[in-house]
Amino acid sequence: MASIEGDLMRKLILGLAALTMVAAACQPGAGEPEATFGATLTCPWDQSDPTMRTFIVAGQSNMVAANGNPGTLPTAYEAGTNAQLQMWDEGEWKPLALSTENKKDKLKYGPDLPFAWTLHAACPDSNIGIIKYAVGGTAIERWVPSGDLGQELSARAQAAYFSHPDVTIEGFLFQQGGGDTQTREEAESWDEDYLSIVDFARNTPGVANDLPFLHGTYRFDPFPDDFSALDPDDYIGMAPGGRDFFFHMLVSQWTVQYDRPGIYPVIHRDLPLKDDGIHWNSDGIRLAGQNFAVAYTNEAN
Hints:
single chain, alpha/beta, Rossmann fold, 7-stranded mixed sheet, 33% helix, globular, disordered N terminus
């Protein structure tokens, strides 16, 4: 087993136990970071086209975003004041805002909302839609096409698609993985299950056969972005919360991009967290949304 000694070992353990370091880039600052940062991105499509550019969003707790509480975003974001930004909510298209979907009747937001606002800043003349279904504490086997959550997501996406006269599906955002870290088998098969979702979606009528798939993956110092050379057996039991095979799952999330074109790991490095050391706080949620927007505009197009 590879050794990490002295200060480096202490840094690793503290980083994994607390995960409290603030991201080095894209920090919320003066003004709204989504507008400021998004304006530096290049819009990936022709804005003269009135099509609603729509993204399917799915995953577990950090996509549900338990800490996406009212009062932690600009009023315009929370109240749904921009008709160009829409969400599929409670069986109909509505202005993008706080939602009770999948949040136990509590108004919440996840990374999808800052993602849309960042993309809006890059594409101010475009119509953007979000179809979201996320459930905390879920393993990826429930999201595969035959799984209960996969079937529900598919049904919602189809209903949303056929309920609007002019929708194109532009991408799939997925934030999931923690539910597959308890056993080696689950962690090491994450990529195979994810590929089944990719293949199913790309073979669905109305969806491009090269639809971009973006999935969030966690990083902490001293680990690099690229996990190709990492031996996850060296780090069994080092992740918080009893997630013994956390690093095996991260390796699956990294290497899956080589199995199909158009799959993009989105690095979430040291995003600020709640006191539980696992779930993002409001700043972390916003940064995650921005990360997805950057990856989509800079890598997927």
